[in-house]
């Protein structure tokens, strides 16, 4: 046989591969993830497929602590990230999106305590909520101090300025129930309220007034 260059005539994407597996009934339906060994395989790839039935936070945090050994995360047939059990993965998810995690077995430990080296997803995949940084804006407050989940966010004094919002780091949020303590020092006659916003707001008028006072004092 003469040696020559051979061109690939057909390339299948992830969707084609999943259709092939479904057509040949090379899959099982399960409410729990199973390892490669539980399906009587010893090596190769395993594809875990599910449809997101709820609206997760986006981006969603996907811990990969139970992944053995290497994972390819697809959202609606688009590769999002390549990861392993060391990293936590973030992915853009929407309700009714199809999540596919293709897991590769990269070999086994054949000695010592790690000889029972199962492959695939060893744990259920659960989404963690990603809390982003925000800014706290107070309405109808005058002057005081506040704490978010027992962490001080410093003093607020919007009338004095220049800042109208206080920085709230995402690391301070619990993700379910937040605890905000506000000590108002001067005015409690009005109905106060607050909100978390994306942008930091500055009071330009307060800046101008402060500069004018500095000029007069000089």
TrEMBL record:
Stretches assigned to the Beta-galactosidase 1-like first all-beta domain: 35-135
Secretion signal, residue range per the UniProt entry: none
InterPro entries referenced in this protein's UniProt entry, alphabetically: BetaGal1-like_ABD1, Galactose-bd-like_sf, Glycoside_Hdrlase_35
UniProt-listed SUPFAM superfamilies: Galactose-binding domain-like
Gene Ontology molecular function, alphabetical: hydrolase activity, hydrolyzing O-glycosyl compounds
Superkingdom to which the source organism belongs: Eukaryota
GO terms under biological process: carbohydrate metabolic process
Protein name from the UniProt record: Beta-galactosidase-like
Record organism: Tropilaelaps mercedesae
């Amino acid at each position: 046989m003469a040696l020559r260059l051979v061109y690939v005539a057909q390339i299948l994407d992830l969707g084609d591969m999943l259709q092939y597996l479904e057509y040949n009934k090379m899959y099982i339906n399960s409410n729990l993830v199973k390892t490669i060994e539980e399906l009587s395989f010893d090596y190769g790839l395993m594809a875990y497929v599910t449809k997101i039935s709820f609206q997760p936070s986006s981006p969603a945090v996907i811990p990969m602590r139970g992944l053995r050994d290497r994972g390819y995360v697809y959202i609606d047939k688009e590769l999002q990230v390549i990861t392993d059990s060391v990293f936590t993965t973030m992915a853009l998810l929407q309700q009714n999106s199809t999540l596919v995690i293709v897991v590769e077995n990269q070999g086994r430990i054949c000695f010592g305590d790690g000889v029972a080296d199962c492959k695939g997803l060893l744990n259920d995949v659960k989404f963690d909520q990603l809390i982003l940084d925000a800014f706290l804006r107070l309405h109808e407050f005058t002057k005081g101090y506040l704490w978010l989940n027992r962490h001080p966010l410093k003093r607020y004094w919007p009338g004095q300025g220049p800042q109208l919002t206080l920085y709230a780091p995402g690391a301070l949020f619990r993700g379910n129930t937040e605890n905000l303590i506000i000590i108002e020092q001067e005015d409690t006659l009005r109905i106060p309220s607050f909100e978390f916003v994306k942008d930091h707001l500055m009071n330009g008028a307060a800046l101008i007034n402060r500069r004018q006072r500095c000029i007069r004092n000089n």
